[in-house]
Amino acid sequence: MGYGEVTAGGVEMVLRVFRELGSGNRAFFPLWSVKDALKLKSCLLTPSSRFLDIGSGLGKLVLHVALASGCRAAGVEILSSRVRLACAFRDLLLAQRKVPGWIAEATSFIAENAAAQRGPLLVDGAHATHVYMFSAVFSDHDLERLAARLNETRFKVLVCALKPKQERAFSQLDSVFKAAPVEVNMAGSGQRFRMCVFIKTSSL
Ligand SMILES: C[S@@+](CC[C@H](N)C(=O)[O-])C[C@H]1O[C@@H](n2cnc3c(N)ncnc32)[C@H](O)[C@@H]1O
Fold it and tell me: How far is the CA of 54 from the centre of ligand 1 (A)?
């Protein structure tokens, strides 16, 4: 199976989405009303948040989100070989003191087909509050199952790098507000991201 990983610009973009939600910046999310924007303060990524990357690969985003916010961050990945590599990479960074020691406790990687399991998406036994998925790798069927699991989760923010036709799978999400998609150009690489941001209003 081929592997694509979020770029440094993509990591920054995901973090920026979480930060801008907290600030209610309407230049970033032009569809929000002022009243809506005020509610978004509770969406800020804080040390008490729980971040989950669905399809976490080698764990780059999980590590960056934990480091940037101090929150617990987990990845679920279908290929156990990638989970082993993600753990080995994190442990090497710890051994070389390139990341602080608390990262060992704050990050975890689970080998699991996220689309085959049932129940809420959890991070260390608690509901994930901030969820990311690079949805392009999932089939329509998988996305429907993941949407069903997300409905059981008290997530606040879901960020997906979506193909436009995949947005349909998320129409079944309960009580979500969809922010305007954020188009992202990666300087130098020519890549174009389309981040869709869903807010679970019942979790605010
Ligand atoms: C494009 S990579 C993204 C890696 C990482 N999220 C990033 O952005 O750098 C997508 C990953 O999703 C994994 N994946 C695909 N289907 C999955 C499923 N049903 N459950 C869990 N992981 C899955 C793939 O094995 C792959 O490692």
Answer: 6
Residue 74 Cβ contacting ligand 1 at under 6 Å: no
At 11, list the tokens.
Answer: 């990591």
User: What does the pLDDT look like over 117-148, one tens digit per residue?
Assistant: 899 999 999 999 999 998 878 888 899 899 99
Tokens for 29, please give them. 């999310």
Residues 157 and 17: their CA atoms lie apart, in Å, by 10
58 and 86 Cβ atoms separated by less than 8 Å: yes
Contact 171, 32 (CB under 8 A): no
CATH of domain 8-203: 3.40.50.150
- Ligand 1 centre and the CA of 99: distance in Å? 24
Return the closest-CA partner of residue 193 out of 145, 161, 150, 167: 161
How far does Cα 144 stand from its chain's mean position?
17
- Whether this prediction's pTM lies above 0.90 is answered by yes
Ligand 1 pocket test: which of 61, 134, 159 has the largest number of ligand atoms within 8 Å of its C-beta? 134
Amino acid at 2: G
Q: CA-to-CA distance for 157 and 204, rounded, in angstroms?
A: 10
CA nearest 26: which of 34, 35, 15, 18?
34
Packed helices 60-69 and 80-95: angle between N→C axes, nearest 10 degrees: 40
pLDDT of residue 200: 87
